[in-house]
């Protein structure tokens, strides 16, 4: 892919770094889910929620920390997150003895905050929106001389995300399409890079939240938007900007991009719990919500979705289960 910011070799190097620390997550099929989706579609579900931090972003965080030099790790690393990236780098910090600071928005998912602290990271709440949190993170990074672990604009992060698709294709080489939640774009760009090198016929679709349209509108207009409004319970895709490192690859490579409502993601959480016995967070259910939109045009195909995160707060679980 012409505009990919990483290569297949970068992804393979990430596989080598992660292999001693992570086991492959399962890919499963659920006949009741196939029947529900209809259109002759065979659905494959990759359970990234089975990682130690219940999210694919452990791949990103571990690769970002393990790929840093020893002096950088000794000084410490910092990142901004709504939770799952923070959990990934906190886990990596505990594994390697690297001091980690994680900046999160004020009012962030309390369970994610507690889990980050439990892994030994310093957690700082700053900013009402994620973009404001990033600004504070950069200020602290410069003031304290820390290594910045950006959740998107980092080749090690995106290469770590790419290991998921490389693993997925080895487990389910027959896939025709892959539908992925899109926040910053590491998961999608990793997938596009792997697909371009190994399975050019594989189509990659993105799913965003209607309440956080910055990435979708950037893709639709062909220009990178920043500082846009964001209002969705799915914090993993509550993105107010498109990012320089991933934008060109997304614009060039995606086969399509759909938006889904919070209500559709809540329905998908309930469906995934019903059919798979697994609890997804909002972003973790976005793939299924997007598949419902895309199903007519994917009729008869073998489609992969990813339960990319399972860190739903108790408060959001109650709201989701109480919704008709």
Automatic annotation (TrEMBL):
Keywords: Lyase, Pyridoxal phosphate. GO terms for biological process: isoleucine biosynthetic process; L-serine catabolic process; L-threonine catabolic process. SUPFAM superfamilies: Tryptophan synthase beta subunit-like PLP-dependent enzymes. Residues 20-309 form the Tryptophan synthase beta chain-like PALP domain. GO terms for molecular function: L-serine ammonia-lyase activity; threonine deaminase activity. Pfam families: PALP. Its cofactor is pyridoxal 5'-phosphate. Gene3D superfamilies: 3.40.50.1100. PANTHER family: BLL6502 PROTEIN (PTHR48078:SF7), THREONINE DEHYDRATASE, MITOCHONDRIAL-RELATED (PTHR48078). This is Pyridoxal-phosphate dependent enzyme.
């Amino acid at each position: 892919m012409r505009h990919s910011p990483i290569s297949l070799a970068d992804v393979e190097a990430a596989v080598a770094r992660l292999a001693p620390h992570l086991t492959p997550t399962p890919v499963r099929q659920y006949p009741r889910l196939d029947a529900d989706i209809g259109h002759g579609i065979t659905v494959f579900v990759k359970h990234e929620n089975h990682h130690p931090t219940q999210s694919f972003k452990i791949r990103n965080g571990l690769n970002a920390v393990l790929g840093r030099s020893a002096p950088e790790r000794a000084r410490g690393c910092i990142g901004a997150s709504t939770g799952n990236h923070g959990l990934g780098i906190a886990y990596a910090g505990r594994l390697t003895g690297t001091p980690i600071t994680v900046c999160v928005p004020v009012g962030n998912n309390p369970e994610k905050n507690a889990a980050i602290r439990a892994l030994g990271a310093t957690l700082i709440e700053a900013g009402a929106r994620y973009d404001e949190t990033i600004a504070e993170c950069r200020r602290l990074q410069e003031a304290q001389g820390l290594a910045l672990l950006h959740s998107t604009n980092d080749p090690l992060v995106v290469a770590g995300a790419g290991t998921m698709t490389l693993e997925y294709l080895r487990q389910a080489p027959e896939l025709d399409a892959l539908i992925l939640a899109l926040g910053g774009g590491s998961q999608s760009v990793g997938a596009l890079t792997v697909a371009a090198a190994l399975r050019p016929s594989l189509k990659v679709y993105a799913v965003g939240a209607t309440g956080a349209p910055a990435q979708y509108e950037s893709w639709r207009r062909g220009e990178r938007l920043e500082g846009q409004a964001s209002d969705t319970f799915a914090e993993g895709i509550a993105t107010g900007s498109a990012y320089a490192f991933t934008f060109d690859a997304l614009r060039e490579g995606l086969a399509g991009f759909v938006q889904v409502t919070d209500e559709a993601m809540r329905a998908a959480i309930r469906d995934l719990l019903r059919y798979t016995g697994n609890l997804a967070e909002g972003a973790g259910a976005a793939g299924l919500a997007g598949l419902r939109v895309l199903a007519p045009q994917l009729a008869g195909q073998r489609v992969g979705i990813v339960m990319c995160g399972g860190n739903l707060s108790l408060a959001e679980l109650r709201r989701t289960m109480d919704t008709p």
